[in-house]
């Protein structure tokens, strides 16, 4: 048996040492021992790091300090309700109208004809003249009428003699019955011919068939016309008839005998009566023809002009407000946002009743309501809000019962053409030179008569720019912010006027009225200027 060599003995010793856990006694080479020692140190360091991390995390639960408060979210911070401006509005009964446009038509339009032919020898009437029924318009020459009458009389005499002769022979039996009947027929023809000629003598005068204005009349002396020729037209425009087309959804509210307001394009207005309501709609437009008769005794309204008809069909409660207050609901319907008793926003759909120059009438709202005038675009239905009164009068807080007519509106902002032409009276009262924006002659205002200032502020419905500029300067001097004195009645000027009127106990309309002018002159004269 062979003895183990040195390498075999060394391997056995290493295996025995590893089983006993004694790595240090291993007599192996130096490099292998140095590679194992760093690995043991790295594991120890990792273990210590993990232990320190666990201890640091656990210190948060074992420490006695109070936890830091968690930051509030934006929704939790918004505890204060949104502030809006709202005004109270009370519904008022207004008249509903069915409106349409049409054309004024004359009562009668009749052609003028000549009953007999001939040469025109005299023209009595002229075109455009009003004629009563039976008035002479023109005459036809009678030069050949006398000869025709003499010839017809001679023919009648001859036929009468021939009839008498044949009748005598027939009585004695010398003539037949047929000859007698023939002579009698010829006598009748002669009589008819004479009567026809004598009648044409009366028809040589062309007369007016009706009472009315003679139109389309163009006859000349010596002109030959034929029998039944049309020489002109007569128009009777008393009464006038306006025909309009009413939509099928409104025709049920229009009845015979209803009164109607008719406004003509000339500016004239008349009261009329519904005299015809069609029972069959136009197949193309699905509208019903309706006729309104308007008395025109002076015949000052011509026929053929355009007219707007408004037929009152009942009353409905409605609110008067600015169109800027309207908002869209969740389903896209038009309405207003209001504040209820619990200070929450509520959306009410609204229907337009009619429009005025400075606002609209709407219904479908409660009789008493607080309408949001500022901030309605930033709140939604059901949201809690804090409602405050408007600062300078809401945009919709007008006087609903007295909606102004267009001519009474002093002027609209943004139109530089309004008031550009100064009237002659304005030139006498107010200097035409434009003062500087900051300069103002108080004596020029206090020396004016309130009536004159009011007249100049709204001359003919259009504000005089010099007078408005002076009023703006006075309001600014009194502490009311009327904006730049530019002579234009803008929103700032109207707000300043409303605030001034409210302070003076006047009706806060924002209009340049006589009462406003008097109060303004009195305030300047009293020296009530604010610093």
Notable traits:
531 residues; alpha+beta; six-stranded antiparallel β-barrel; four-stranded antiparallel sheet; 11 helices; 26% strand
Model description:
This protein has helices at 6-19, 30-62, 74-77, 145-172, 177-202, 424-429, 442-446, 450-457, 465-477, 491-503, 514-525, and strands at residues 82-90, 92-105, 108-113, 118-123, 130-131, 136-140, 205-207, 212-215, 224-225, 230-236, 240-247, 259-264, 269-277, 287-294, 306-321, 327-328, 334-339, 345-349, 351-356, 359-363, 368-374, 385-388. It is elongated, with a radius of gyration of 53 Å. A 6-stranded antiparallel beta barrel has the order 2-11-14-13-12-15. By secondary structure, it is of the alpha+beta class. Residues 242-311 form the CusB-like beta-barrel domain. InterPro entries: Beta-barrel_RND_2, Peptidoglycan-bd-like, PGBD-like_sf, PGBDSf, RND_pump_MFP. Residues 465-519 form the Peptidoglycan binding-like domain. Keywords: Membrane, Transmembrane, Transmembrane helix.
N→C terminal distance = 133 Å
Structural class: alpha+beta
Strand order of the largest sheet: 2-11-14-13-12-15
Strand content: 25-35%
Radius of gyration: 53 Å
Overall pLDDT level: 76
Could you tell me the number of beta strands?
A: 22
Any idea what the shape is? Answer: elongated
| Number of helices, counting only DSSP H or I runs of 4 residues or more | 11
Query: What is the assembly state of the chains in this entry?
Result: single chain
User: Roughly how much helix do the residues carry, as a percent range?
Assistant: 25-40%
Biggest sheet descriptor:
6 strands, antiparallel, barrel
Low-confidence stretches: 21-35, 393-443
């Amino acid at each position: 048996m062979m003895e183990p060599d040195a390498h075999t003995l060394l391997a056995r010793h290493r295996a025995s040492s590893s089983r006993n856990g004694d790595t240090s006694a291993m007599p192996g080479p130096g490099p292998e021992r140095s590679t194992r020692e760093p690995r043991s140190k790295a594991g120890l360091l990792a273990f210590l790091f993990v232990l320190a991390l666990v201890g640091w995390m656990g210190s948060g639960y074992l420490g006695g300090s109070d936890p830091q408060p968690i930051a509030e979210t934006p929704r939790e911070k918004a505890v204060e309700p949104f502030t809006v401006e709202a005004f109270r509005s009370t519904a008022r009964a207004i008249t509903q109208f069915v409106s349409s446009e049409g054309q004024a038509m004359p009562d009668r339009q009749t052609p003028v004809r000549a009953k007999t032919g001939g040469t025109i020898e005299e023209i009595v009437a002229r075109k455009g003249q009003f004629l009563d029924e039976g008035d002479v318009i023109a005459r036809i020459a009678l030069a050949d009428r006398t000869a025709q009458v003499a010839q017809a009389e001679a023919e009648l005499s001859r036929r009468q003699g021939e009839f008498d002769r044949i009748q005598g022979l027939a009585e004695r039996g010398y003539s037949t019955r047929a000859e007698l009947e023939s002579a009698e027929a010829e006598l009748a023809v002669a009589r008819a011919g004479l009567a026809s000629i004598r009648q044409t003598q009366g028809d040589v005068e062309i007369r007016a068939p009706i009472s009315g204005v003679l139109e389309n009349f163009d006859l000349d002396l010596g002109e030959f016309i034929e029998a039944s020729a049309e020489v002109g037209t007569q128009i009777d425009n008393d009464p006038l008839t306006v025909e309009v087309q009413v939509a099928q959804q409104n025709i049920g509210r229009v009845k015979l005998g209803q009164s109607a307001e008719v406004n003509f394009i000339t500016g004239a207005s008349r009261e009329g009566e519904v005299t015809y309501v069609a029972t069959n709609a136009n197949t193309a437009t699905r509208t019903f023809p309706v006729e309104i008769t308007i008395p025109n005794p002076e015949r000052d309204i011509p026929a053929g002009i355009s007219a707007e008809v408004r037929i009152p069909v009942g009353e409905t409660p409605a609110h008067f407000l600015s169109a800027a207050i309207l908002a869209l609901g969740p389903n896209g319907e038009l309405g207003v946002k209001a504040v209820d008793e619990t200070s929450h926003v509520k959306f009410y759909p609204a229907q337009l009743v009619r429009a005025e120059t400075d606002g609209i009438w709407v219904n479908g709202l409660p009789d008493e309501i607080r309408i949001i005038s500022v901030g309605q675009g930033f709140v939604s239905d059901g949201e809690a809000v804090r409602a405050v009164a408007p600062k300078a009068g809401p945009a919709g807080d007008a006087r609903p019962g007295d909606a102004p007519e267009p001519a009474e509106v002093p002027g609209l902002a943004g139109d530089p053409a309004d008031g550009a032409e100064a009237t002659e009276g304005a030139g006498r009262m107010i200097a035409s030179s434009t003062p500087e924006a900051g300069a103002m002659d108080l004596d020029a205002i206090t020396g004016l008569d309130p009536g004159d200032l009011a007249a100049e502020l709204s001359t003919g419905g259009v504000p005089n720019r010099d007078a408005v500029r002076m009023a703006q300067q006075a309001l600014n001097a009194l502490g009311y912010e009327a904006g730049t004195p530019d002579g234009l009645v803008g929103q700032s000027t109207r707000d300043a006027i409303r605030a001034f009127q409210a302070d003076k106990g006047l009706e806060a309309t924002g209009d340049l009225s006589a009462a406003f002018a008097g109060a303004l002159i009195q305030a300047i004269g009293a020296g009530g200027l604010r610093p």
